[in-house]
Amino acid sequence: MANITIYHNPKCGTSRNTLALIRDAGHEPQVIEYLKNPPDRATLQRMIADAGLTVREALREKGTPWQELGLDRPDVTDDELLDAMVDHPILINRPFVVTSQGARLCRPAEKVHEILPAA
Questions:
Q1: Is the pTM of this model over 0.85?
Q2: What is the pLDDT of residues 15-25, one digit of tens each?
Q3: Rounded to an integer, what is the distance from CA 14 to the centroid of its chain?
Q4: Helix (H) or strand (E) holding 3
Q5: Domain 5-114, what fold?
Q6: Alpha carbon of 107 to those of 18, 80, 97, 113: distances in Å?
Q7: Cα 90 from Cα 35, distance rounded (Å)
Q8: Most buried among 61, 97, 107, 112, by the most CB within 10 A?
């Protein structure tokens, strides 16, 4: 069985669709509800880097306190953004999927196909 982890929010349609695509491909992933069990800073930083994103690209704005926290300022550093994401996991965009073939922020959900191992 392939080792697949999805950082999931069951209230998010894209996250639910991504989970369904993984299962439809014949895999049963480890599902981490990241709002209840957020990744630590090192894990978050590694996922973002492995997905080929900047920290700012992994930051969720819609429905979050990003503006109230001042994270919309261009002078906010990656370290400050990461700290805020760890302190407020709602700021982590979703869903992140990690497999032996890499990591992706699966927006749209079909991006998960880029890293799914053969079933």
A1: yes
A2: 999 999 999 99
A3: 11
A4: none
A5: Glutaredoxin (3.40.30)
A6: 9, 24, 11, 12
A7: 6
A8: 97
Whether a cis peptide bond, with omega within 30° of 0, leads into 108 is yes
What does the domain layout of the chain look like in residue ranges? 5-114
DSSP 97-119: EEETTEEEE-SSGGGGGGTPPP-
Confirm if 103 and 44 have CB atoms less than 8 A apart. Answer: no
CA dihedral (101, 106, 111, 113) positive or negative: positive
* E runs forming strands in the chain: 5-8, 30-33, 96-99, 102-105
pLDDT per residue as tens digits for the range 32-51: 999 999 999 999 999 999 99
